[in-house]
Design goal:
Blueprint (H helix, E strand, L loop, with lengths): L2 H20 L1 E12 L3 E6 L4 E5 L5 E7 L10 E8 L5 E8 L10 E4 L7 E13 L2 E8 L2 E8 L4 E6 L10 E8 L5 E8 L9
Parallel strand pairs: 4-13, 6-10, 6-11
Antiparallel strand pairs: 1-2, 1-12, 2-3, 4-11, 5-6, 5-8, 7-8, 8-9, 9-10, 12-13
Length: about 200
Amino acid sequence: MSKLSILIFCGALSLVSVVANAQSTMRVRGTISAFDGKVLSVKSREGKDLQLQMTDGTTVSYPKAIKLSDIKPGDYIGTAATPDSEGRLVAREVHLFPEASRGVGEGHIPWDVEPGSTMTNANLAKMVKSNNGQELTLEYKGGARNVLIPEGIPVVTTVPGDRSLLQSGTYVFVVVQVAADGTLTAARIQATKDGIRPPQ
């Protein structure tokens, strides 16, 4: 192979790598305005009209309310939280993952519910009663966090659903893949059911 051919080949590989890495993920919270079976139209909480492509791999689920006492040490859970004035993490919601989702999104990362918020997906190591509710110790690969769970916050588990839930006026939380050309594809959708909204 000539030097010119090698340079062209390497350039093509670099272009493929750039295109592959150009796809990113975003989270959409909003209300369904239309669904034709292939495209889900959503008015986001920021007021944007978004067209989300659906694929055979797009999953639909819904939240079901449970009690904090239904969650036991060893369960895999997630919680969005914000720091209080003393820097302690205070949960805004708690969700119990089904066993099949153990390990999904594991870790402690910034979240976009509000400025300074975080999401922790981890194994519940310990739960103890505190003056203001319950304090959970969450352990994940590479670290651990203590999170205060005030009384009255939403506690849910995720239940598999189907596309019959995708009705106009329904509030949804959607994980969206953004292609290099700007195309938005819904990967996972959680829809409101029985008055229980996705608390993410």
